[in-house]
TrEMBL record:
Protein name from the UniProt record: TetR family transcriptional regulator
Entry superkingdom: Bacteria
UniProt entry keywords in alphabetical sequence: DNA-binding, Transcription, Transcription regulation
Species name: Actinomycetospora cinnamomea
PROSITE patterns (alphabetical): HTH_TETR_2 (PS50977)
Pfam family, one: TetR_N
Residues within the DNA-binding region(s): 38-57
Amino acid sequence: MSPRERRAPRQARSRATVERIVAAGRAVLLERGWDGVTTNHVAAAAGVSPGSLYQYFPDKEAVLDEVVDRETVHLEARISRAFVDTLRAPSRGDVVRRNVEALLDAFGEQPAMTRVLADQMPRGAGSRRAAFARRVDELVAAVLAGQDTGQRRPDVMAWVMVRAVEQATIGWVLEDPPVDRADLVDELTLLVTRYLERRWDREVARSTASD
């Protein structure tokens, strides 16, 4: 076993201990932040000895990596479900609005965890954040592909919209600006719907002029 690998629990009692350690790691992380966590803090919060913790996790990074991985999986599933649900909305503007609200709900539920994910999971090529964003891109592009977008590429449109909305919603959660949530939702909805409608109108006008 390499220094960073953790021992996989085989018995129910061992699995229960691991779950307690991970839950404690999450609580301590939210309380103290990444740099403030130590294995002693986690062990104490889990009600186990440091030696017991080291049986399953070689260091604090291994504990926190597991916490972050689980949180990311949960966040991905929540946002994906919310996005699919919004496709039943009666209009394009309603679809956009509901997705903006879903992102704000997801990122705003645990601002401290959102900050950890943003800080500890930079979006580089091959990262989990990049992979998740690509999945959302694909969902949005699939919706756009079913509409008349003129000569515009749905995948490019999706990339632009997803990044704009994600960055704005995460920034609002982390920066706590003097902007009401309702105003933010209105502005982002207007931004995206106008982008869709105006660019589509431009393509239609170009197509008509060339005929």
